[in-house]
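Sequence in, structure out.
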Amino acid sequence: MKRVARTVTLLWLLAACAGTHGATLADAPNSSVSTGDFPTKPVRIIEPFGMGGGPDLLARALAPELSKLWGQPVTVENRPGAGATAAPALVAKSRADGYTLLLNTSSQAYSAVLSKTLPYDPLSDFIPTASLTSQPYLLVAGKSAGVTSVSELIAAAKAKPGELKFASTGLGTATHLGAVKFNFEAGIKAVEVLPRPSDSIADVLAGTIEGRTAYMFAPISITLSPIHDGKLLPLGVSTTRHSALLPEVRTIAEAGVAGFDFPFWYGIWVPAGTPVRVVNKLAKDIARALAEPNMREWLAKHGADPMNMTQPEFASFVHTESETAARLIKSAP
């Protein structure tokens, strides 16, 4: 694990030189893109988790605001599958001109730590462009799991070490890291059930609802309907603050795992080599769109807090998050 941590840190230093620092010093070589009238054609937002997931909902809220700002169509494309790596793989191979954007979660920062077989480098093949929002995950259990609280889940797992199953949307995703952190800090051992290549986050959540897995960490927005229908039980909020969407649900820290805090966040990335002028314009325009009253209202309704970072601040934040993930994996059994 020491080698993994050192490798991750080195990769990030290289990525910082190519992405963060390059995006503030000079344009990418061999680029003829000008931002004087950018964009002059439709822009695509690619998201990796499928219809109804948090990234999809946020992308579809953001796209109309950007379209109004730019006077160009902004479309959202769902590319779930391959453990949430199909979308980044597509964007990494796209032309570096600012017209193909990746909207991803904190998984983009985490995936380099856990998977060395990706068809792209999550660090050096992308430029972190714009921070979007931060919000909690929800620890949920299916009714067939037979638990109604965090303490009952921990007790059930300790009674049968290594037998309880938890779901994730893939190695290196926030659903995976949230569960790894929870299992480690709660002192339990459980078996991860990875998604099929074509599974969306809705498919993964369905596995918990139907009893194929006992629990998982999921965006609150996608859990509200099954919770309301009595098909899913909310056990705890992953941050130290309660969620406005489920104010009656305690935090995991309050429910028995002292100090537990695991927010997840969204951001926009573009392919490495995108001209700095384009990166900066995208960052500023996305920030403007997020500040629009309609967008602020939508974010509040969905329990999301704007991150309000500049492009360099976001790039530095992504770097720190990747290092944090490396430490977590190193410390976990």
